[in-house]
Write a structure and sequence with these properties.
By secondary structure, this protein is an all-alpha fold. The chain is 71% helix and 2% strand. A hairpin with an 8-residue loop joins strand 2 and strand 3.
């Protein structure tokens, strides 16, 4: 009797196990069957799967393969035949990820999340903005503001407020002008050409003032310039007399030459310039001018005696003195 009961119990257990296995196989196969849906349904399924992978990565206890759902049948956008998207790889990964000791668990789930994100981009799913934990954000902000560098922060001073009010008033003025200009299209060209006209008028005034200053300088310059040149000429003449009294004929001729040059500057034959050479001074005088012949003779004498180091005698000094007197009386 006991043997019969034991044998019967074994048969019932085996039968129950067979029913459970068949039920599991049927459930799995039904989960893997593609579901006929729309593109919007496929997008929503992708979003749910992405959230499932993220939650499973944070907590192994929520890794439930049943939440993966069945395959998706996605209709093509160009009117072609629909295609199937299989989730068997994700089902196996979620099942394995239930074990927190799984090797490279975080890496595998991260790769799965990236793969789902790629599919979402291909499907045109807009990435939702991340949820912000206001309480944690407020706490982090309070910790930052409690630092020492923020303890001395004060409000805007009177100067800052006045500057801000000025710029606000300035902005409102130009904002009003732009609003008014929409109904008056002629205002823009008037302002532009008005500014150009004012700039041109300022340029003309500046040019006239420069010319007036130059005319005033020309009116005031001759007397002072002639007086200075005459004084310079007399100083050179005195040096020539002193050198001649000492018998230094070379120095005397050199001084008489520069006395003659200063005398011609006093008569405004040319403008004063201390960097000219004797030949350049000679070229400034017209060959028809009465000063040309004596200045040429004096220049040749200077070049021979001063620059050529030729010996000078009293006759050279007398000739140079005669040229100087002739230029003074010309």
């Amino acid at each position: 009797m006991r043997r019969l009961l034991s044998h019967r119990f074994r048969i019932e257990v085996i039968f129950a196990l067979c029913l459970a296995v068949s039920a599991g196989i049927a459930q799995t196969s039904s989960a893997q069957q593609p579901s006929a849906g729309t593109l919007e349904g496929y997008k929503a399924h992708l979003s749910l799967l992405s959230e499932l992978v993220s939650a499973c990565n944070q907590n192994p206890s929520v890794c439930d393969p049943a939440k993966v759902g069945g395959n998706d049948r996605v209709p093509a956008r160009d009117g072609k035949a629909a295609f199937e998207v299989h989730w068997s790889w994700l089902w196996d990964l979620i099942l394995k990820a239930k074990d927190p000791k799984l090797a490279d668990r975080e890496k595998l789930l991260r790769a799965a999340g990236e793969r789902l994100q790629e599919q979402m981009r291909e499907a045109g799913v807009e990435k939702s903005a991340p949820r912000v934990d206001f309480k944690n954000a407020r706490s982090s902000a309070d910790k930052v503001l409690a630092a020492s560098e923020f303890r001395r922060v004060t409000g805007n001073g009177l100067r800052d407020r006045l500057v801000a009010k000025f710029f606000d008033w300035f902005s409102r003025i130009f904002g009003g002008v732009s609003t008014f200009a929409r109904g008056a299209p002629w205002l823009g060209p008037v302002i532009m050409y008005g500014f150009l006209l004012l700039a041109f008028a300022g340029l003309v005034v500046w040019i006239f003032r420069i010319l007036d200053r130059q005319r005033l300088a020309v009116r005031m310059e001759p007397g002072a310039a002639i007086t200075h040149s005459q004084e310079t000429s007399r100083s050179w003449a005195k040096l020539a007399e002193a050198a001649a009294a000492s018998g230094e004929w070379r120095e005397a001729v050199h001084a008489l030459y520069w006395a003659s040059i200063s005398e011609l500057e006093a008569r405004r034959v040319w403008r004063a310039n201390n960097v000219r050479t004797p030949r350049e001074y000679l070229r400034l005088v017209s060959p028809d001018a009465p000063q040309y012949r004596p200045l040429r003779a004096l220049t040749r004498s200077l070049e021979r005696i001063w620059y050529g180091f030729a010996p000078a005698v009293r006759e050279d000094y007398d000739a140079a003195l005669a040229v100087y007197e002739e230029l003074r009386s010309a």
